[in-house]
Amino acid sequence: MGRRVALLIATYEYRDAGLRRLTAPAHDVEALTAVLGDPRIAGFEVTTLINEPHYRVGEAIGDFYHDRRRDDLTLLYFTGHGLKDDQGRLHLAMADTRRDSLMFTAISADQIDQAMEGCVSRRKVLILDCCYSGAYPPGRLAKGDDQVHTLQRFQGHGRTVLTASDATQYSFEGDRASGEAVQSVFTRHLTAGLRDGSADLDGDGDITLDELYSYVYDRVVEDTPQQRPKKQDDVQGRTVIARNVNWDLPVYLRNALASPIATDRLGALDALVRLHRIGNETVRARTRAEIEQLTGDDSRTVSASAADRLRALAPPAAPARVAAPPPSARPRAPAESVPEPAPPPPAAQPAASPPETPPPEVPPQLETPPETPPQLETPPPEAAPPPEVKPAPEVEPAPEVEPAPEAAPGRRDRLAVVAGALAVVAGVLIVAGAIARQLTSGVNVSGPAADHPRYAAGIALAAIVAGLGVLRPATRPLVGPGLLLGVTAASWWGLVFFTGELIRDALLGDPRRELRLELIGHLLLTAAAVLAGLQLRRDRAVRLRLMLPHDRAARVTLLLCVLATVGGALVLGVQLYELVQLRETYPGFGDLATHTWPYAIGVVLALLLPLVAALAAPIRFALALLTGWVAGGWAISLTTGTWVRGRPDPDRTWAIVFGAALLVLLVAAESLARRPAGTPVRLTRRLLAMTLAVTLIVGCGAVVLVDQLTPPAGILVRLVNRLAVSPDSDRVYATTMLRPPFGARNSAARGELIVIDTKTDEPVGEPIGLREMPVGIAVKADDGGYLYVADRNSDSVTVLTARENATIGGVIPVGDEPSDVAMTRDGGRVYVTNSGSDTMTIIQTSNNGVIGTPVKLGEDAGAAAVSPDGSRVYATNGAAEQGPYRLTVMDADNNLPVGQVPLPGRPASVEVSPDGKRVYLGSYDVGEVNRLWVMDTASRQVSEVVTSPETGFADMAVHPDGSRLYAIDLVNGVTVVDLTSRQIVGRPVDVGVAIDVVVSPDGERVYVANAYAGTVSVMSTTDLTGVTTIDLAA
């Protein structure tokens, strides 16, 4: 079925002072736009031009008639000044028209005639509501008469021309127009007849052009007798311009149906049958219902006749398509040429003896009558008499039923089927890849599909739903492709991410097969969207209405739409900003490289796509496109807050902001789509091309810009992980790792020890080489010159002399995967916890030998601490999420555990008070409420000190006087706890990704290791705000 397209042009403000400003056109075109664009009435795709220069109007008319189909219905409407030059040629005046240069500043009738001639549409309607005038210079006489002869200028096959008048109604005196501007009664009655259905003169539910002209002619002549509208057509069959939305049974027929006399009801039955034959879907449905009701009439004659007629009728017609009501064609008599048509006689009133029944009508849409030569100035056809009430023996032909959507698929349907199938397969692959990553990598992997399966699940579900929408015939034309395009746009976030992950893994020599499934799924989804886009392009069912609304309410709605779009993009923009800040502060965090690129692209799409959806037409496609984007974008927003901030649960704020903003977009898009179109934006295709170019430039530019914040590949970055302070507080020892910034494996790292002078806060000497991954450090108390550093990868402890910057002898073997190091206050022994073998290794520092065999502690040995007198050693168990959580107490004299104390939560760190009476234990779970507990060493009773929803206790250090505790986590920096009042002091001090904290023995300074920044933060124990940073990354 062809499209119904309309181009409405109105000009009422002119730069030429000689052209009088008109008051009617602005209101005329707004009202007509609303009626023609109403899908219930006319269902046209309306484009409006108001007060535009001639070159823009000419371009729009050319595009309007270009590339149309034979079954399209085109309607071109103009209201404003029509000018006749001294050669008698007609021109339509535009905003920039000059009367002394009509050829180059106006739209000539010849141009429009040629454009219509080149259009293959078989139904072209031209409506001119002009105030004609002459454009002759002063002192010259016009050639010809005062008639414009509009109809003669637009003769042609397949055309219908309606004009409000054909005579010049203005004369010019000098450079000013004289005479009063006639209010446009023509367009007013034209609009009214369509809006309320009063132009449906024969009562069949359809308003044809013949009926519309007849109705308007009567009303115009009645209001302004000096004005005579004209009509000319050369079209096969009738042209249905609109539907009568207020159709109801005629009064006489309703009276007959309600009559107590059976013969009246019997006569009404025949009238119902005739209406069923000639009417549209609405009329047929209503008349059929009335006939069905008559089958239960108390008169056997009436009920039997109604049953016979009902059996003779065809099955009920399928519901009408709102956007483009099918014209119901029937033969009509050739038009007669009459200089001035006489008004039609009024409709006859129902009579007791109606006239004979006319011959049966031709079924709808059967355009078979022979062509008739074009006739000029056709008078309005006479109004049809009311339906007869005389029985008719003939059997009516079955009305045409619209083909079912399940018809055999053509080439376009095959494209849609392939696109839908690809989308479903893509969703399955994305889910399969996410599951495979979970099974093969567990929780120790980054990325949305592994750490946060919400994105993978959300995108996959949306893709499958969109694919099914494309496969389903009912939603295949618009809704399915719209959903698919919206979801695919959101999935480009994941496409960029998984591409970056795969490239990174390939560079590291460890590609993951499960990643390929997710990447292939995203690529298939993009391919499906391309096929769906090709289908839409071939069907030409979708377009962008780049219009600037005229009324204030529509402009406010558009502004709200823009603000909501910015609000939705703000969600991704804030996260992009946080990622940039993290990359700038912690260049060693390699995953941030692949995390940043998707957000850079996502921000651009979040700005662009909702605006495109708000301007797209028809409304079903626009809302489907926006719904698909909402579904995918919401999955991104749920993942966003968890990913960057390391929280297992989504940030509800981002989800609410993103969802609310896009909900506003849905409402705004629908509101704009229902309003009349406004002024079009010039050069639509170029504007779209420029928008795509800007999207690529901004997106790629953002990626390149952000990428400059990290060192290039191949450069090693120093990461600080553990600290220790000499007994005299003169030196700080920092263990570091050198590793590539692009997420290399631990085997590519190299450990170092850096000595810092606390007086100058500068490194001293050259770094001392260590093993691959130092995890703990202890300083011998006698002179502070010997250090014991545990290495996780080599399962060993290295002994160094810091005074000479050299290692001493070989390494000391310990258990599997050492995790922490603790030393007695006198430096006689070193205790090393081994998380891999769940043991503790004891080293005698006098000979650097291992004492006995490793002591079995229990599952998941973690942090360790020694009492001040060296009699007790405390080690945490239960580092894994499943527990159980315990604190193992070991007797240092016989090196045997003497008990295990149950803990209420998973411990992350342990410290002993300076007097040895209390043991402090802290928890650190991302996104959870963390707690600090204290255990009385005498009774071994555990109680809670503080809880904190903001910070954690990943590592701790107690002040030498026992008054304060300093705790750090990986996000919020340093937190101070007053151990006397058991209260958190102030707010956490942000020092970056803190991984270790120590307090100097003199109690004056706090030192914090910033892992990925390669720095050590120094602050006073009395004033944490004055932070000094020692850069070790250089």
TrEMBL record:
Coiled coil: none annotated. PROSITE patterns: EF_HAND_1 (PS00018). InterPro entries: Caspase-like_dom_sf (IPR029030), EF_Hand_1_Ca_BS (IPR018247), Haem_d1_sf (IPR011048), Host-pathogen_enzymatic-act (IPR051200), Lactonase_7-beta_prop (IPR019405), N2O_reductase_N (IPR011045), Pept_C14_caspase (IPR011600), WD40/YVTN_repeat-like_dom_sf (IPR015943). The keyword Zinc does not apply. SUPFAM superfamilies: C-terminal (heme d1) domain of cytochrome cd1-nitrite reductase, Caspase-like, Nitrous oxide reductase, N-terminal domain. Residues 3-229 form the Peptidase C14 caspase domain. Keywords: Membrane, Transmembrane, Transmembrane helix. Residues 313-410 are annotated as: Disordered. Residues 340-402 have a biased composition (Pro residues). The keyword Lipid metabolism does not apply. Residues 313-323, 330-339 have a biased composition (Low complexity). Pfam families: Lactonase, Peptidase_C14. GO terms for molecular function: cysteine-type endopeptidase activity. The chain crosses the membrane at residues 415-435, 455-471, 478-499, 519-536, 556-577, 597-616, 623-643, 655-673, 685-706. GO terms for biological process: proteolysis. This is Beta-propeller fold lactonase family protein. It comes from Actinoplanes aureus.
